[in-house]
Amino acid sequence: MITYNAAIRAFLSCYLLNMLGKGVKSPLFQTAWFLESLSTQTLVIFVIRTRKTPFYKSKPSGLLLFSSLSVTGVALIIPFTPLGALFGFVEPPFAFLIILAGLIGVYLMPVEIVLWATCLSFGKSFHSTKKSCVMTV
Questions:
Q1: Domain extent for 15
Q2: Closest to 71 in 3D by CA, of 46, 54, 47
Q3: How many domains does the chain have?
């Protein structure tokens, strides 16, 4: 899963930036990488926390929902603030934000499929509760 994660992130980020224009400068790539990686890694929590498929059929706790969406929201705002400039970020084009939303969906679909297949295949060796599918050691 780690190899899949790194490979898909690198591919999606490079592809996205090439779609937006040729000669993408390093600060834009850094900004796009930051937004994409933080968004996907924060939102993947909603997929891996439950056995229900699709994941949105299981209601997360209020604290998990608030904290995850807050982290993602702050990350999306940072490039537009002086703090973003301090980190070397630039304001991403609006088209990037639209494409980012689609890429997050594309990223979460295979995660959902792999979790479903894992829970189905190894159901006996997983600790099952109503809401989770967690591997026991």
A1: 2-135
A2: 46
A3: 1
